[in-house]
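Anyone opening a protein record will find just a pair of labelled lines. The record below illustrates this layout.
***
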Amino acid sequence: MIYQIADLVLDISGNANMIKSKVCYVQPEGFAAYCRKADVPFSKDILSSVEKDNELLMYIDEDVDLSELAAPDLNITIKGADDVDKDGNSNYVLRRLENYILKDKEKEIDGKIFYSVKDKIDEPKGDFLFKQSGSYFYKTDAGFSVIRKFSQIHEILFRIDFDFEFTNALVYVFDVSALGGMPVERWIHNVVGEAFSYIALSKGRVTFHSSSIDFKGNGVCFSAPSGTGKSTHTSLWQKAFPETQILNDDTPVLYLSETNEVLVSGTPWSGKTELNINKQIPLKGIVRLYQNDTNIVSDLKGINAFQILYDQTKILRIKQLFDNGTGVLNRVLETVPVVKLGCNISEEAVMVIKNRLGL
């Protein structure tokens, strides 16, 4: 399927058909053991050796008789395939991206992302470069690779292989729900978003962790550490001004127009709320929120402002991507007010920012 996101044309497709397996859990107490039937024979002896409140996670072949695995405190679930269409695409991913489907099929493709679900992901063969934001980056003979690991069991949770230009991505996803994580279809969507962020960066677009609004055609991004109240604050704008729309509740994109104006765009990756719209508008302000008894606003300048912006991006320490990303941020600092708002949960906080930004 062809999509247009932040004025980028992307071919996103995949195969979410999973290798079916039966997964068994015993609740955790401080450690996790991880076994596969191919490597470790399962028997009643193994299960009986698992004490109450310890955890043993196992992938079991389809032909195993579950009655043979009976043990105290053992909860058995059946893990099957993701809900997929006839081509193997995740229906969940298709739904999350449906508002970004491109109708003009004549436009040139800027990048391709293909995803698949694997029951085992190998580490890339290449030179380790650096670790950033919990992910490990490698340079390989074919381009670059990024992986994320579950450190307790040394399992690779995802791997993305890029070409050197960051225009094509092969995404391999491990079923994290088998480790007690989110449903695999949501994990696929999130990792595809990770791949998108680096392809977008190669095209001069920066994903920016924030909740962003469209207020009468003006874009404002509200940035803060998770749990500080970004979504709460944007909901105050909707209460005070019902015409306000949530452009993206988690990961909008910042980039420059042909006239060098800073734009902010919605994307399909907006966290758990799924609040986003397919729209690009001029960015009129970035607000760094922190909790305070009273509402007070102050300007952020220079290196302090740059660091706050940079920390909320996925700009990589790979030269062509770093230069693209910092170029966008520098233009933001030149033309867009960046302010700090100490606020309480009141309509007055909205008016303080509205007045400061001249909206």
Q: What stands out?
A: The chain has a mean pLDDT of 83. Residues 184-202 form the longest helix (19 residues). The two ends are 38 Å apart (CA to CA). The longest strand covers residues 280-291.
